[in-house]
Amino acid sequence: MTDLPGRRLLLVHAHPDDESINNGATMARYAAEGAGVTLVTCTLGEEGEVIPPELAHLAPDREDRLGDHRVGELAAAMKELGVADHRFLGGPGRYRDSGMMGVEQNHRPGAFWNTDVDDAAVHLVEIVRSVRPQVLVTYDPDGGYGHPDHIQTHRVAMRAAELAADPAYRPDLGPAHEIAKIYWNRVPRPVAEAAFGRLRAEDPGFPGFPGIAEVDDIPGVVDEALITTVIDGAGYAERKAAAMRAHATQIAVEGPYFALSNNLGQPLFTTEYYELVRGRSGASAGERETDLFAGVAGVAGVEGVQGVAGVEGGEDVEDVQGAER
Ligand SMILES: [Zn+2]
Question: How far is the CA of 31 from the centre of ligand 1 (A)?
Answer without folding.
Answer: 22
